[in-house]
Amino acid sequence: MPDEHSHSRGGSHSHEGGGLLDGHTHDLRGTSKRRLVWAMVLIVGYMVIEIVAGIVSGSLSLLAHAGHMLTDAFCIGIALVAMHFAEKKATKQHTYGFQRYEIMAALANALLLWLLVGGILMEAYDRIIEHGHAHDHGHDHTPDGLVMTIVGLFGFVVHFGAAVILHKSVDHSVNVAGVYQHVRADLLGSVAIAISGGLILWNPVEWLELWVDPVLSVILSIVILSGTWGLLKQVFRVLLEGVPKHIDVHALCRSIEALPGVVVIHDIHVWTLSQGSDALTAHVVIGEHVTDREAMLDQLKKIISDQYKINHMTIQLESSVARCTEDHHVDNLLALADS
Q1: Cβ burial, residue 231 (10 Å; 0-12/13-18/19+)
Q2: How far apart are CA 253 and CA 91, in angstroms?
Q3: Alpha carbon of 27 to those of 30, 101, 164: distances in Å?
Q4: What is the pLDDT of residue 95?
Q5: Distance between CA atoms of residues 269 and 289, nearest Å
Q6: What is the DSSP string of 167-206?
Q7: What are the residues whose beta carbons fall under 8 Å from the beta carbon of 12, sequence distance 6 or more?
Q8: Using CA atoms, how far apart are residues 39 and 45, in angstroms rounded to an integer?
Q9: Which helix (H) or strand (E) holds 315?
Q10: Rounded Cα distance, 55 and 45, in Å
Q11: Which of 250, 191, 254 is nearest to 220 (CA)?
Q12: Following CA atoms 8, 14, 17, 21 in sequence, which dihedral angle do they give, to the nearest 10 degrees?
């Protein structure tokens, strides 16, 4: 029996689009989009209040924090635009569609958050130097502790609400996860502002009111960086077409090779198109006694779809690897031998 590599040689291929899973992914994306919109409403509303309060009170810190809220709103806007493009259908130039826009938006949001952290650290350093010089010359400038406390507490309520709205979609969208990190950072920032204001009002030690704000800013920056590191690793795993974290390729290969009639699986590739949408291509060598190839394909698809939740697959059936030009890489056999 001849090798089967292409339709022109009578090959048996399976191209599975995963309609039900794709529909589920579309529903999750719609839900995530609605949650992003509600989060934007809360954040923009709070930003307007901060701008008004900053103008009325003459507080530059409030206006600066309002500028940070504008950055958050911009990030949510990026996420919503990315989701809009991700829903567009595939074209002949973009055969996988535009789902990677969401991944790119998550990367942009994470990098922007790191830039903001850099700005926070620079500002904290400047304040420490400034407070040192001011203290030496006897003209320290103390922030308004009452205003800081009120703004911090109100900001905590707003960002806590936004975080609760977004949290349910974090596991379904890396894009939402990127925005969630921004909201989480601002929630922690609001706590830091409220604590700083409370300590300034309480004023247990003379030097505390000068140093508490920059020191808490540094601590906050470390927390933000640790939180976004996991998100960046997830984004790079997708962009580098790494195997999804929840899939054990060797276990998948053993499941397929356990089917009666399957000799070996090789040239297997598993990667993520976008969160919730994984893909697989593989060559499967079957015995010459296997006559019902459609039934074999159905069994393979059932294992890949039901057990490993991969909704986009292309399987090539072969009777030998003699005429196969691709990289065989049967590492699963080596792993089985070592186990």
Answers
A1: buried
A2: 32
A3: 5, 17, 19
A4: 73
A5: 27
A6: HTTTTT-HHHHHHHHHHHHHHHHHHHHHHHHHHHHH-SST
A7: 4, 293, 294, 297, 316, 317
A8: 10
A9: strand 312-318
A10: 16
A11: 191
A12: 180
CB atoms within 10 A of CB 104: 17
Exposed, middle or buried by CB within 10 Å (0-12, 13-18, 19+), for 225? middle
Q: For residue range 222-268, list pLDDT tens digits in order.
A: 777 777 787 788 888 888 888 988 899 999 999 999 999 999 898 89
Element (H, E) at 263: strand 262-274
The structure tokens 């989060």 sit at 39
Phi, psi of 15 (to 5 degrees): -120, 110
Instruction: State the residue for tokens 């994470």.
Output: 110
The secondary structure element, H or E, covering residue 119 is helix 100-137
Nearby residues of 283 by Cβ (< 8 Å), 6 or more positions away: 265, 266, 267, 268, 315, 316, 318, 321, 324, 326
